[in-house]
Amino acid sequence: MALHSLLLSLFCVCFGLSKTAAQTLYSKAYGNRTDPAVIYIHGGPRGNSTLFEGTAAEHLAEQGLYVIVYDRRGEGRSGDPKATLTFQEALQDINKITKQYHLKRFSLIGHSFGGLVATLYTEAHPKKVENLVSVGALFAQQESYDHILDSCTVLANKANDTAALNKIGEIKNLDTNTADYRKKTYEIASHFRFFSMPNPTPESIALRDAYEHSVFGKDNIRNDEAPLLFYKNETRVNIDTKRTLQKIKQSGVRLSGIYGLQDGIFSKKQIADLQTLVGQDAFFTIDNCSHYPFVDQRGAFTETLLHIVKGN
């Protein structure tokens, strides 16, 4: 029995599994724990950290960061049938990760929906977070949804895409606070390649290909029930965090943003608003880059993140 317990403990350490009575969180650390710590918070609901982990985590660790990735409870590799997928649960998960890796102060990288999670966590624990880094992060959801639908309407009219126009009309008649509205809005955005890099480079193509054929690509687990649970159990399903970000900035946490210039889910006004809020010196845009800067332009993303976290 003692040997069995020892082997189980070694398994959990080697594979970064944080076990509790209620759940198992997938997590893994890359790099030296004496380097500045950054926690990556993935998109969703329904997402995971595999793309970031498979393309950027080890690379960033080689540049002198202590990088921690994890999948939220009920998403990706952190399967849990009891997960509620609420923001409160997501913040509890971050606390579990910080305790597991003995982190006192750290930076958060919030990507896409993960930006909302990172923002709410920083609001609750401003003394723990040194840098809140928004990477293609949502911050005014309805503004993004309106921009997507308006932009897609223009493109559909230009292309005489009747099917797309019909779908946009259907979406506009849905309740904006439903999983179906969110899902179909992002589907039409994908139809018009809003999440795709405009001109893939040899490096970005190689990174994507390597990811698809790696263990991370094979572990790209998507829980289709996650968005439904989130919209069922969470009241804050369509939020604007600009005031929260202002409050965080006043608390002394350093805010910064890294956004692709061709990320189609944000309007020019939204980007200008966020740049004003964060500060021009802390807001960075990358050309020929869409919603995934760490893959589309890994070199520029790495250089920018190092500048933010380490002052390089």
Which helices and strands appear, and what pairs or packs with what?
Elements (H helix, E strand, L loop, with lengths): L1 H13 L2 E3 L4 E7 L6 E5 L8 H13 L3 E5 L16 H14 L5 E6 L1 H12 L4 E7 L5 H18 L3 H11 L6 H13 L10 H11 L2 H4 L7 H8 L8 H9 L3 E7 L7 H11 L4 E4 L6 H4 L1 H13 L2
Parallel strand pairs: 3-4, 3-5, 5-6, 6-7, 7-8
Antiparallel strand pairs: 1-2, 2-4
Helix pairs in contact: 3-4, 4-11, 5-6, 5-7, 6-7
Keywords: Hydrolase, Signal
Family: Belongs to the peptidase S33 family.
Organism: Sphingobacterium corticibacter
Structure report:
- The chain is 49% helix and 14% strand.
- The chain is α/β, with parallel strands linked by helices.
- It has a single domain, classed as Alpha/Beta hydrolase fold, catalytic domain (Rossmann fold), CATH 3.40.50.
- Strands 1-2-4-3-5-6-7-8 form an 8-stranded mixed sheet, sandwiched between helices.
- It is globular and about 55 Å long.
- Residues 1-15 and 17-22 have low confidence and may be disordered.
Which key features would you list for this structure?
312 residues; alpha/beta; Rossmann fold; 8 strands; 49% helix; 14% strand
Query: What's the number of structural domains?
Result: 1
Q: Radius of gyration from the CA trace?
A: 19 Å
Overall helicity: 40-55%
User: Would you identify the regions where 5 or more consecutive residues have pLDDT less than 50?
Assistant: 1-15, 17-22
Number of strands: 8
The sequence of SSEs as H and E is HEEEHEHEHEHHHHHHHEHEHH
Assess the beta-strand content as a share of residues. 5-15%
Largest sheet: 8 strands, mixed
| Strands side by side in the biggest sheet | 1-2-4-3-5-6-7-8
Number of helices: 14
What is the CATH-assigned architecture? Answer: 3-Layer(aba) Sandwich
CATH topology: Rossmann fold
